[in-house]
Amino acid sequence: MHLRKVGYLVIVIGIALAFSGVMVNPNFHSTPSTTFLTPKYTEYKEGFYETPIPSNMTTQTTDIMVGLKSPDNGSPNVSLLVPMKYLSKINSTNIQQYGLNESSNDSADVWFNNVPAGTYALVESQNDSLVVVASPQIPLELGGALTFVGAALIVSGFVITILSVAIRRRNR
């Protein structure tokens, strides 16, 4: 194979890798999120309101936002994300050890950041949740690595192509 063809091949592979890196990088495009309304699925069990989160919403590392209505009696709502396998074990004394604590809680929303893949239920002390929004997280390392390798291959391909043209002209 001629050196110029190798250069072209390296450029094409580099473009494909760089494009793949950009496609998986969430900084370059919005990541689709999934939303569902909770009141339809909430059940009262063991002194808590439990809302199962559909398993297709948490098939990879996810950020979950729970939209809350303002409490009627003014007392704060305790919202935890609990793996489904622990739901039968929770009670008012041990719920904190099984739940994933929210990372931030403002007046309207509760956030659970970097939730590992799995099946979960939203457990609340009061029935205040209205909506759950799950946004999948894509590791930045993967997108960055693909983009970097792709860019390096593109540059290498151009260098190989330019060298092959220069060598060919010199040999004439």
Give a description of the structure.
With 172 residues, the chain is an alpha+beta fold. It folds into two domains: 3-26 and 140-171; 34-136, Jelly Rolls. The chain has helices spanning 3-24, 95-98, 140-171, and strands at 34-37, 43-45, 48-52, 62-68, 79-83, 104-105, 109-115, 120-124, 129-136. Strands 1-9-4-7-6 form a five-stranded antiparallel beta sheet, with no helix packed on it. A four-stranded antiparallel beta sheet has the order 2-3-8-5. A hairpin with a 2-residue loop joins strand 2 (43-45) and strand 3. Helix 1 (3-24) packs antiparallel against helix 3 (140-171). The longest helix is centred in the C-terminal third of the chain and has 32 residues, at 140-171.
The class by helix and strand makeup works out as alpha+beta
Q: How many angstroms does the end-to-end distance come to?
A: 19 Å
Radius of gyration: 25 Å
Shape: rod-shaped
CATH classification, class level of the largest domain: Mainly Beta
Helical fraction equals 25-40%
pLDDT average, as an integer? 76
| Low-pLDDT residue intervals, each spanning 5 or more residues | none
Please tally the β strands and state the result.
9
Task: Tell me the CATH topology of the largest domain.
Answer: Jelly Rolls
CATH architecture of the largest domain: Sandwich
Strand ordering within the main sheet: 1-9-4-7-6
What is the succession of H and E elements? Answer: HEEEEEHEEEEH
> Major sheet, described briefly?
5 strands, antiparallel
Percent of residues in beta strands: 25-35%
The overall number of domains is 2
Number of helices: 3
